[in-house]
Specification:
61 residues
């Protein structure tokens, strides 16, 4: 075998290993179950407004 064929075989083997590892990772993440969003009803939305007071004797335009 010449050097080019050896490099091609090694590169192909690495590619196959990465593909199998990716498939195993996807299966592991998929095994965890359905992705459910966080419940919105438990969030308390509170809006606070600051009251600005103008000191006496200051002209406001």
């Amino acid at each position: 075998m010449n050097r080019g064929k050896i490099v091609a075989v090694i590169t192909g083997a690495i590619s196959v290993l990465l593909a199998v590892a990716y498939l195993l990772l996807v299966q592991l993440l998929d095994f965890r179950g359905e992705m459910v969003p966080a419940p919105v009803s438990n969030l308390h939305h509170q809006v606070e407004f600051a009251q600005l007071s103008v000191p006496t004797g200051v002209n406001v335009v």
